[in-house]
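Human: I would love a firmer grasp of how sequence relates to backbone shape in proteins. Take your time, and here it is.
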Amino acid sequence: SDGSIRLHQMTSECPLMQWNNSTKGQAIIALQWALTRPAVFFALDASSNIYIWDLLENDLLPVAKQAIPSEKVVTMTLLGEPEKANGLLGIVLAKESGQIDIQYVKKKWAIP
C-alpha cells in the first residue's frame, strides 16, 4: 500500500532485496514478472503508472516509467510465449470503463 516492493526467496521470510517508496508512495495494485525475460518485472500503481524493472540493467531503480493518462487502469497482466525466442511480450491493461488495452513491450525488455 505504500509503494514498497520486496523480493523474497521461498525458503526465507527475510527479503533478498527491498525497494522502499518505489512509486513515490502510491499503492501498487499489480505486479508481474515478464514471461519471456526472468530479470524483468512490471508494477502498476494506483495512479495508472507502469514501472519496468530490469534487475540486470539496474537493481536500484526502475529502468522505465509509463503513465497511462487517458483513464484509470484497475489491473494489468502480461502475455507472451516464454517457450519462443521471438521476444514478443505484451501488457494487457483493464481500464475503469471496462475497456481493455494491449500494449507491446520494447524487445530489449522482452527477449530472453
